[in-house]
UniProtKB/TrEMBL annotation:
<keyword id="KW-0732">Signal</keyword>
<feature type="domain" description="SsuA/THI5-like">
    <location>
        <begin position="96"/>
        <end position="225"/>
    </location>
</feature>
<feature type="signal peptide">
    <location>
        <begin position="1"/>
        <end position="28"/>
    </location>
</feature>
<dbReference type="GO" id="GO:0042597">
    <property type="term" value="C:periplasmic space"/>
</dbReference>
<dbReference type="InterPro" id="IPR015168">
    <property type="entry name" value="SsuA/THI5"/>
</dbReference>
<comment type="similarity">
    <text>Belongs to the bacterial solute-binding protein SsuA/TauA family.</text>
</comment>
<dbReference type="Pfam" id="PF09084">
    <property type="entry name" value="NMT1"/>
</dbReference>
<dbReference type="GO" id="GO:0042918">
    <property type="term" value="P:alkanesulfonate transmembrane transport"/>
</dbReference>
<protein>
    <submittedName>
        <fullName>ABC transporter substrate-binding protein</fullName>
    </submittedName>
</protein>
Length: 359
């Protein structure tokens, strides 16, 4: 374990009290809401539309270069579901997404594999019931530990230093794994809880010595530092991390028609990333506020899976649930959860149905 410096969290009641212990977010960070994409009227629906889906769908997303941003920027859901109201809300990290699930502010959202595991474990599983329905990406070099001092070659060289990381995120989980594997204890480093958008200022102001974060913030920090290790290294050590899509079980039980269209749109986005990366990067750049060229450089740091692969035993159909169970064991060791749920809880909280239904 390591010393934690928290930038005070927000919220109320038991859920937030627990999140503040290891998943807090800055009070200055307010989820950003929009009703659609950011670059115009959007494009035509790329899949079979459904005009029978109605009501308001509350979708959470994060500033991460994957298919979710392609779907949002092109307003595919708005085009494919003309009688539904699509409400998009941006969250800074998985900790904020868990708060949104707990408060009913989100029906479905991108969330990292570590915070998703927390949501399936005690005590949060008493406050929410969620299932993973999609793998937005398998995280590789696009999420890394960056240090300012050129003399820092390994994580052990950061002993006595301040490392920024968003608490409760996949980066937080991977960093704790790396510290544990390096044999560092709670008196060796200080972890500073910062959302990605707050890191560049802390970095330039020499308030931190290193940061564990994902793109596009990672690319900014690398201009004045270097990568010490990445999530690819963590995966090679048997601890892979993912950006997932989870939804509340109550929402899933009532919205099968929406999920069919949603999964088809996500699959179309993955196929665009692979077949026309320039076009996909243009959409992501509009959402991330960086150049399309910079977005394309980040693609190699992730693995994007089409629906046909996602539904297989290697991913949603088997292995992912096992990985979440393994993640829970480490989180318990670190004090991030109160107890590990039965293995069947994690395997049962992965639903390959939407991916498997994509034609």
């Amino acid at each position: 374990m390591s010393r934690f410096t928290s930038h005070a969290g927000l919220g109320a009641a038991a859920l937030t009290a627990f999140l503040l212990a290891g998943c807090s977010i800055s009070p200055a960070t307010v989820p950003q809401q929009s009703s659609g994409g950011s670059t115009g009227s959007g494009s035509a629906c790329p899949v079979t539309p459904d005009d029978k889906v109605t009501g308001t769908i509350k979708i959470g997303y994060q500033a991460i270069p994957n298919g979710d941003l392609v779907v949002k920027d092109n307003k595919w859901l708005e085009s494919c579901l003309p009688k539904a109201t699509i409400k998009w809300t941006q969250y800074p990290s998985g900790a904020a997404v868990l708060q949104a699930f707990g408060s009913g502010s989100a029906d479905i959202s991108l969330i990292g594999s570590s915070p998703a595991t927390k949501g399936m474990s005690a005590p949060l599983n008493k406050q929410m019931s969620i299932k993973v329905v999609w793998i937005q990406d398998v995280i590789g070099k696009a999420e890394s530990l960056v240090a300012k001092n050129p003399a820092v070659k390994t994580i052990k060289d950061l002993k006595g230093k301040k490392i920024a990381v968003p608490f409760g995120s996949t980066s937080h989980y991977s960093l704790l794994q790396a510290l544990d594997q390096a044999g560092l204890n709670d008196s060796d480093v200080t972890l500073v809880n910062l959302d990605p958008d707050k890191m560049p200022a802390a970095w330039s102001g020499s308030q931190i010595d290193a940061a564990r974060v994902w793109d596009p913030t990672l690319t900014q920090l690398l201009k004045g530092g270097h990568a010490v290790m990445s999530s690819e290294d963590t995966a090679k050590a048997g601890k892979p991390t993912y950006d997932l899509e989870a939804a509340t079980t109550s929402f899933l039980s009532k919205n099968a028609a929406f999920m069919k269209v949603w999964a088809a749109c996500q699959d179309a986005a993955v196929k665009q990333i692979k077949s026309d990366p320039g076009k996909a990067a243009d959409s992501m750049a509009a959402e991330l506020g960086i150049s399309s060229a910079d977005v394309q450089k980040q693609f190699s740091g992730y693995t994007y899976l089409p629906a046909s692969e996602q539904a297989s035993k290697n991913w949603l159909g088997g292995k992912l649930g096992q990985d979440l169970n393994s993640t829970a064991g480490f989180l318990l060791k670190q004090g991030g959860i109160d107890a590990v749920s039965p293995a069947t809880t994690y395997t049962g909280a992965v639903d390959a149905g939407p991916a498997g239904a994509v034609k």
